[in-house]
Amino acid sequence: MLRRSGVNGLVTCYLSESRERWIPVDRKAVALDGEVLVGLLVCSHSSDWTAEAIFADVRAHELDIDDER
Questions:
Q1: Which residue has the higher pLDDT, 26 or 36?
Q2: What is the C-alpha to C-alpha distance for residues 7 and 62, in angstroms, rounded to an integer?
Q3: Is it the case that residue 53 has pLDDT exceeding 50?
Q4: Domain-embedded: residue 31
Q5: For position 63, what pLDDT does the model report?
Q6: Is 44 left (phi over 0), alpha (psi -120 to 50) or beta?
Q7: For a FRET experiment, which of 4, 27, 38, 49 has its CA 20 to 30 Å from that of 13?
């Protein structure tokens, strides 16, 4: 599973096998002014192969956070 959060200009990506323990794997400073668009993709990383994915139980929602942190 993959989870992404963005707080105060920092975007963090997490991975989890169980949805109980999330491990941060990357964090970058990103300017997130205005509307943020969300999408899903799959890539085979090879021009000789195609890739197919089925995405299920996908949710995107705005987190209720305190901007003072």
A1: 26
A2: 11
A3: yes
A4: yes
A5: 64
A6: alpha
A7: 49
Measured in whole angstroms, how far is the alpha carbon of residue 11 from the centre of its chain?
8
Place of tokens 């305190």: 66
Instruction: Evaluate whether 19 touches 12 at the Cβ level (below 8 Å).
Output: no
Is residue 67 included in any domain, yes or no? Answer: no
Query: How many folded domains does the chain comprise?
Result: 1
* pLDDT at residue 10 greater than cutoff 70: yes
Residue with the bigger pLDDT between 66 and 25: it is 25
22 lies in which domain range?
1-59
Q: Answer whether residue 65 is part of any domain.
A: no
Alpha-carbon torsion angle 18, 12, 58, 23, nearest 10: -10
pTM over 0.90? The answer is no
Length of the chain as a residue count = 69
